[in-house]
Amino acid sequence: MSIASTRYATLDAGRNYWGLLAVLAGVVLAGFAGFLHLEHEGHWITGMNNQVVWGIPHVFAVFLIVAASGALNVASIASVFGQAAYKPLARLSGLLAAALLSGGLAILVLDLGRPDRLIVAMTYYNFKSIFAWNIFLYTGLLAVIAVYLFVLFQPALARWTRAAGIMALLWRLILTTGTGAIFGFLVARQGYDAAIMAPLFIIMSFSFGTAVFLLVLAAACRGSGRVLGDALLFRLKNLLAVFVSAVLYFVLAYHLTNLYATEHHGFEAFILNFESLYSKLFWLGQVGLGSLLPLALFYSPKTRNCRVSALVGASLVIIGGLIQMYVIIIGGQAYPLILFPGMEESSSFFDGVVASYVPSIWEFLLGITGVGIGLILTVAGLGALDILPEDLSDPEPAS
Amino acid sequence: MSLDLTRREFLQGAGAAGALTLAPGVFLYAKDPEAPVTDAVRWGLLVDTQVCQEDCNACVDACNEEHNLQDLGRPETDAQWIRKLNVRDPLGGRTISLPMMCQHCENPPCVDVCPTGASFRREDGIVLVDKHTCIGCRYCMMACPYKARSFIHENLTEQLPDAPRGKGCVESCTMCVHKVDAGENTTACAEACHKDGHQAILFGDLNDPDSEISKRIREFGATQIRADLGLNTGVRYQNL
Question: Is this complex scored with an ipTM above 0.85?
Fold first, then answer.
């Protein structure tokens, strides 16, 4: 397959295609019904409370937003860094990023205490708030991706591809910085208030986004009867392996820095001592299941050339990523705020104790709605637009 | 009085006339309600932890009554604008009890992070939530170092005119802004503490060197909670 001759085609709109869309629409509708119930009753029917104010919906939403940024990896590598092998996949990269971002944003809006005031969020701005900046960064990325895809679809605009790709790359790096800064800028919480949150979220986006891209690509090829060559699949897998390792490095740097400062020892013990739920999730879920096991699958001589291992490894990275978000978002809130360092605190408002959080079905429905929206937009895009190359088989060796 | 007077014109006229009783217990403001709030004053509270009694909940009960904060039997989601916090020093076991509420910071993290500007600080130092522009994102609750804010998790009924509250918005201690603006120069918690004979909570103008609160701070000193954050709180504590 050569780049110049890449031919794209929509997915065949057969029974399987419409069936998949119907299933995804069912997921979205079920989630929306859950939202209506939540909206009617109020948040008391969720597990969220005045101690853990952000819950499962935010785990899914932030994961999707971060993964959306990372789904653009392939587009950046192709259009900015000129890697020919990825160029046929740049369209899918853009579509998937926009779809995942839309899903994540939908969750954030549906979880608001007053989602009916979305217009207020769009018309009143406090520019000292990173949240306000993120509203522009998120909607702006959708616009930047639209421009990027438009350029890709117009052969006459080919010379603008790199410029559009650079714009998308810079925008998404700033966007993920802004997302990490939501937590990094929280001065009072033991688990946050750290500049490393921004680069940590960037590298998490590389990892999660590449994992989602790899799985969606493989599923789209399988569902449409296209051949996905080993070379491309394993190249993506190797790239993902580097990103998974890099996330581990940043996590290590974060915890080592905290461990050096005595004031953070309480929080570090909470996450690392294998006693709290969050600690078990950290070690078994985030580190074991989501990082070390995929790395073993990606690098072990017995499995590194196995397609199933690559797909299983990418799936584990996604599960580990969701768990990592849970540990960061919920664990960071569950650990008690320290008002009097070195003292023991107690009150009727749960001071001094680890906050409880038991997520309800309504929160999961909100989260799954976002995933459903992301996937339905991807599938609809693949069916309506010439996104996926007709041939992704390995190039024949030069004679 | 002409029936087509606007509400503003009516209030202006009433304000100029001074306090006006509309019905038993319902007063119009004694001062001009159109007069802008300025930074000539900075309202604050001073808490003496040596006087505050561990088994006394008068300030909390008074606040709940003043703003009709109801106990819905769900302590994890029920709103608490003020709570009694017990602090024990593991070295020696000394225990103190103190009221904890919005600290009305000069540099409030809740105001910094609020995307719509619904969290705001008045010129006189009182930090409030504009219930018309709060979208219920709860970022201010993540940012508050004092856990002073509550999210309203359910439909409310029987709200009071002076305490507009509703499902899906965040709220916290208003330093009884309705009393302050009416010129009462006190808060429900300070009043209740005084009535109970403890006088652990003192309300006043931190900018006025001759106010009782300023004199006591000058004479005995006072501490900010989490002073390391540099927020310059309007609520200060003695004998921590």
Answer: yes
